[in-house]
Amino acid sequence: MSLFSRPAYTSDTTDFLRQLKAAKPTLESEQRQGRALLWDKTVNRQDQAEFKDARVAQKPYVYQTNTPK
Asked: Which residues of 23-35 are buried (b: 16+ CB within 10 A; e: fewer)?
């Protein structure tokens, strides 16, 4: 027996995830569908440029009133 051979350690989190995936095999595909619904979007570069050009610069101190001098 070698000094370096020992049973492989797995964390509680890894064990939980393995059990969850075994109990619900469709979990990964459902996660991908949810991600596609919220995050995987095509970006319209022209709209992005227009939004950037239309942006109004913010004052250094936003709570200051505009009183005439």
From this structure: eeeeeeeeeeeee
Q: What is the pLDDT of residues 15-63, one digit of tens each?
A: 999 999 999 999 999 999 999 988 888 889 999 999 999 998 888 887 8
pTM: 0.48
Tell me how far CA of residue 56 lies from CA of 41, 44, 52, in angstroms. 26, 21, 9
Q: Which residues contact 10 (CB under 8 A, 6 or more apart)?
A: 18
One-letter-per-residue 3-state SS of 1-64: CCCCCCCCCCCHHHHHHHHHHHHCCCHHHHHHHHHHHHCCCCCCHHHHHHHHHHCCCCCCCCCC
